[in-house]
Amino acid sequence: MSLSPAAARKRTPAISTFQGGFEPATLFDFKELTMNTKFRAALSPLSAATLTLCLAVSPIAVKAQTVPKHTIENLQQAYQQQWVKEFGPLATEPQAPLAKLLSTLPHSDRDADYDTLSSREGLASITTANVTRPAPLAAIISTDVQLNGRRIPVRIYCPESHAARNVLFFIHGGGHLSGSVTVYDPIARRLALATGDTVVAVDYRRAPEAPYPAGLHDARAALLKVYQILNQHQIAFQPHLTLVGDSGGGAFSATIAQDLQTTKPGFISKLVLIYPSLDYTMSWPSLMENGKGKLLDKNKIAWYFDQYFQHNEDRRAVSPLYRPIAADFPPTLLFSGGLDPLRDEDFAFVARLKQQHARVNHVHFPDIVHAFLMIENLVPDQANQVYHDIADFVADAPQTPLKTPAHDPDPLANP
After folding, report:
1. pLDDT digits over 317-358, tens only?
2. In this protein, which residues make up the domain named Alpha/beta hydrolase fold-3 (predicted)?
């Protein structure tokens, strides 16, 4: 059944591609488009050159210090206000299957008692119950990277074709503690099937057994050896690397992209952040708004971070949100959810990328919680869109806005 424009605007996400400076008063000129029965949003028509090329800007000098919080707050507020003006509320009620799951979750203000084993088993259990195992791949290879006498396990997912493919390097989530390559296996498979590219997933060390920065170092080391890994297994590839990070893996991915933006510019061709954790200070309003009964509680986040940071680290200094971003930061696709405690920091990171003239596509689902790829069967449309959008992004389709097929005229083009 087709949705009315008003209903569709409330229930489906918006995607935007931004090129140019950040001016809050005139941030975007959007035009709504339809694709099949889904309503999306894209930039109004621009010249072909502007659509295919990022605005030419000189790389900024990357400074060591972090960006002040008030500066980021101003950018974030301006961007959120413009988003609300164009598309409606940041958060809306979840659809029935998800709402039913959320109704079973505890909403008590009493602090829960968390432990490592239960946390890991819980994430594995909810994923097994709510994600159907994807179709088989041509090959899945378990191997490892040797680093200073220590091995870092990785898993390679090969699509059917033997032709040289682009490479996706996947860093799983789970609060730096709960996830694993095994738990996130369905997502890695779906990425390979959706894109047709080779996916390499790293099984980094986890807290509390291996606190900061062990997991981050593992992920970075494996990423830098990804082509060597593929060569060792005689897997043909194209040297076009997309780094994909989910939740806590998004924190690792954004941090690594920041580290390499000046030391190895161009090594990461593109960056995909799926509801990423980007601010370890836990200082944004959405943590209170969505911090209870929305699948991921703020108290659980605080516990995760306490397990990860065990030596009084400066959490702000190591948060990707506050670290330097250069103009040649990798083109980025970021997914966020309206019911996610991390929503505001995700909007803030997008606003920072826009300010620095980095190319960024932002897909926001107002009616979705954190980690919704782990409950895919309850939100199949949104999950399918994530994989579809990633495939388009990797294949360079997002160089231009999402377009309505020629045979499907846009009823909103001339309202």
Report:
1. 999 999 999 988 999 999 999 999 999 999 999 999 999 999
2. 168-373
Task: Return all residues near 408 (Cβ < 8 A) that are at least 6 apart.
Answer: 34, 35, 36
Q: Which of 78, 66, 83, 121 is nearest to 278 (CA)?
A: 66
Closest of 157, 163, 182, 164 to residue 172, by C-alpha: 182
pTM for this predicted structure: 0.83
d(CA 35, CA 413): 13
Q: What is the dihedral of CA 268, 382, 360, 287, to 10 degrees?
A: -100
pLDDT in tens, 83-98: 999 999 999 999 999 9
Q: 3-state DSSP helix/strand/coil percent for the chain, to nearest 5?
A: 40, 20, 45
Residues 179, 248 contacting (CB under 8 angstroms): yes
Quick one: angle between helices 185-195 and 380-394, nearest 10?
50
Tokens representing 375 are 């409950």
**One-letter amino acid for residue 399 of the chain:** Q
Domains along the chain with CATH numbers? 96-106+132-398 (3.40.50.1820)
Distances (CA, A) of 404 to 11, 36, 47, 83, 391: 19, 8, 18, 21, 17
105: left (phi over 0), alpha (psi -120 to 50) or beta: beta
